[in-house]
Design goal:
The model has no long low-confidence stretch (mean pLDDT about 95). It is globular and about 50 Å long. The protein is mostly helical and about 180 residues long. The two termini are about 25 Å apart. It has 10 helices and 2 strands; from the N terminus they run H-H-H-H-H-H-H-E-H-H-E-H. It has a two-stranded parallel ribbon with strand order 1-2.
Length: about 180
Amino acid sequence: WAENPLLHDYHDREFGVPVYDDQKLFEMLSLEGAQAGLSWLTIIKKRDNYLRAFDDFDIAKVAQYDEHKIDELLNDPGLIRNRLKIHSVVNNARCIQRIQREVGSFSHYIWSFVDHQPIQDHFSEQEEVPAQTPISQLMSKRLKKQGFKFVGPVICYSFMQAIGMVNDHTTNCFRYQEIAGF
């Protein structure tokens, strides 16, 4: 799936590498939500625009965005200009802040779904990789209960893959062993 240079670079440097930083987790959750109904290539091409527009996904700053700022974002051609998706980023920043107050960090909360240890899958073919799992279904349910938006079980599983909660590189991929060593 990494024939495009941007996707190739993402695969070789980021995909599946465990992430524990709240700001980076917020970025990846936001980008996964923006992808809903679109290709990851579309989002990767716009990633720098998202970083700029959303203050590098600074949780405290994004949580303070008002309707005027949201209108600005909706007029930004560098973003997916979907009102629900833009609102979800602001909403989710506020939800993350609440979790940070309750448990100390979003990272601690999100990684608890896998007992703070990456899952090492052993798929030999990309077609074997599921779109969702019981864990992503549970995560989706709990995040929704916390008030998060754009966190269905498929988005949650893509998020889990992106942030290294699960190693879904196929066993014949050079990154499989590298990621398993983290």
